[in-house]
Amino acid sequence: MIASTSITVHYLDLSLNPSGEVTKQIGDALPVSCTISASRNATVVWMKDNTRLKSSPSFSSLHYQDAGNYVCETALQEVEGLKKRESLTLIVEGKPQIKMTKKTDPSGLSKTIICHVEGFPKPAIQWTITGSGSVINQASICLIVLYCTWFNVEFYLDT
After folding, report:
1. Tens digit of each residue's pLDDT (9 = 90 or more) over 104-116
2. Does domain 12-93 have CATH number 2.60.40.10?
3. I want to staple 67 with a disulfide (CB 3.0 to 4.6 A). Which of 54, 83, 92, 131 is the partner?
4. pLDDT of 120-140, one tens digit each?
């Protein structure tokens, strides 16, 4: 008597392009593809900094907030434990971008200046009193509230 049996071989392969550490300039485009080859339909999940993305990343013009660790993960639901994952660490470099906001208190006695600077490598900003050379504060993000009761003060941001 001859016995026979059927054997099913499942496979799963993933190719992420680019992968590893990638450094680009702000405003650059970066095409990203995660190609799956599998014996059955495979699920694909994208993560950025351990947070699941709703769709695959697309970078037509890079911003600083695009920087991070991306992971493309695929799995075969029919075969428990058959998973593959590849990662991309995206670094976005460029000159600092400055956003400054000025607000005056309704009483007119104080002014609030908020300066937010983005860049990579991480920029540092420095507040000085014009003409004195005195440094008020050094940081990446500053909030300065100045109280002026007897005279008007003008504020300048030297970039």
Report:
1. 888 877 777 777 7
2. yes
3. 92
4. 877 777 777 666 655 555 554
